[in-house]
């Protein structure tokens, strides 16, 4: 049985776009985070008017042209597969604006939503400006691309990051959470994980659990799945032979990423 926190690919055709995944606030139980993944054939277009949400449009694969009003970002996108492991281009658009995404080549485009708290300029987040970092050691190693981190004031509530975890490693580990509005110690941020695997027939394990275990779900997550994290710790484990990619969308009442490690497992950080 598939967990209520796990969404399988939808692959529903709407106009010229294929809706590959859709996790929106009205049907996910989330208050702050929305996620949609669309597929476009060459020359196809997707248009949407943002109401109360801001949006980060991530050129996941392929090349696209994004238009918002007088802003035209032509032919953006840097990779044919996320597993090229290089950063890609994105566009941030504030609430109340209309976006048009047109494909130059076959493309997959991630649309990451959160509440638009105040108007901000439309902005290209060029691949060359995306910070990349290595985190962890031993079997806790991963590569992180900070598309829209909390240090970037381009958004009012939205955070977006992508993570690569190598074969046999864990990420989002030691288990951490950000489900209490208790700054400066911890922030409340909902989160979604969009997963891809290389090779595609692989799987990862993701557990989502709270201290009191009122929420405790462990999922075998396959290529193209989305995992919803409304609260709790949420580690990911990658079996031997496969590489994991995921795109995270986070948002909450305050645009700060401050997490709390599970005290039962925080000791691993103190190893030499």
Tally the beta strands: 26
Named CATH topology: Jelly Rolls
Helix content: under 10%
CATH architecture: Sandwich
Give average pLDDT, whole number: 97
Overall spatial form: globular
Low-confidence stretches: none
Q: Would you list the SSEs in sequence order as H and E?
A: EEEHEEEEEEEEEEEEEEEEEEEEEEE
CATH class: Mainly Beta
Measured distance between first and last alpha carbons: 41 Å
Strand content: over 45%
CATH superfamily: Jelly Rolls
Structural class: mainly beta
Tally of separate domains: 1
| Spatial extent as radius of gyration | 18 Å
Give the helix tally.
1
Largest pleated sheet? 7 strands, antiparallel
Question: What report would you give on this structure?
Answer:
The protein is an all-beta fold and 272 residues long. The protein has a single domain, classed as Jelly Rolls, CATH 2.60.120. 1% of the residues lie in helices and 50% in strands. The strands form 6 sheets. It has a 7-stranded antiparallel sheet with strand order 1-23-20-25-15-14-13, with no helix packed on it. A 7-stranded antiparallel sheet has the order 2-3-4-11-6-9-12. Strand 13 and strand 14 form a beta hairpin. The radius of gyration is 18 Å and the shape is globular. The protein starts with 5 loop residues before the first strand and ends in an 11-residue tail after the last strand. 43% of the residues are buried. The model has no long low-confidence stretch (mean pLDDT 97). Involved in the isomerization of 5-deoxy-glucuronate (5DG) to 5-dehydro-2-deoxy-D-gluconate (DKG or 2-deoxy-5-keto-D-gluconate). One of its GO terms (molecular function) is glucuronate isomerase activity. This is 5-deoxy-glucuronate isomerase.
